Amino acid sequence: MSEAKSVVYPVDWIVASYNAILATVWLWVAPRVAGAAWLALAHAAAAGLPWILRRLPRLPPGARALRDSYPLIGLALFWAELGPLQALRGAEPRDLFVEHLDLALFGVHWQEIWMSVMPGRWMSEAMHFAYLLYYLLLVIPPLAIGFRRGFRAFRSVVLALMITYLSCFLFYIVFPVYGPRAISAALLPAAPEGLFHTLVERIRASGDSLGTAFPSSHVAGAATVAWVGWRWLSRGWSAVLTLAALAVALATVYTRNHYAVDALAGLLWIVPLQGGLAPALERLGPDRDPA
Q1: Total domain count for the chain?
Q2: In terms of residue numbers, what domain contains 196?
Q3: Digit-coded pLDDT (tens) for 89-112
Q4: Closest Cα partner for 241 from 125, 94, 114, 141?
């Protein structure tokens, strides 16, 4: 009997395709940017990962958990390179278009007036806490689903998240929007000081990427977690995740990190992806599932 081999899943091909596209982008800027050719080479090598995975023997559970979660680990690297890539490309931000769209849809720029109308410290801290919920949503629910429902469920969550984020990232490369925090927030009164406000500002200072405001991946990611929650968790927990995602969406506007239209676009962005594309890709997956 031949030794069982590792399985290549749709998410592996999605990550490989993203790496191939980014290799092309970095190669395009290489003639005028030192080191870009090496980044192009790294992405090109990563694009070959499905062929490597196909040749691996079937992995034990511990190694399989790492193998199934590697896309989420790579996600942090993909996010970190977006800001420098935008700066090196010198692409013109499209904030003027988004500002006009925001005003046309809502009549006002909510990110400019909401904090001024409700400036209390308790409100500010509640909204900045809601903003921080995003980071908890990206970690706790996927792990909980994996522990409770197994590898297949965890892979489904990883696929859903990667479809959401990588599609957003590709859109940012084509249509960069800096957002109100970079454009106009410095002209408005500062939020009251507080624990959660300070934490949000420190996180932003340590890892923000310009050009990633529209649609809000903050909102799209939180909404994706809520979406998969309705499939893999109880109704009670799914309702909690949905309320948390809505709180995140509102907080992105109150904290002036996004236009309201960014948050709306983030919510709408995931509907065709999670309602159509993700299930279709899962059906295209391999018949043999070691989980």
Answers
A1: 1
A2: 10-283
A3: 777 889 999 999 999 999 999 988
A4: 141
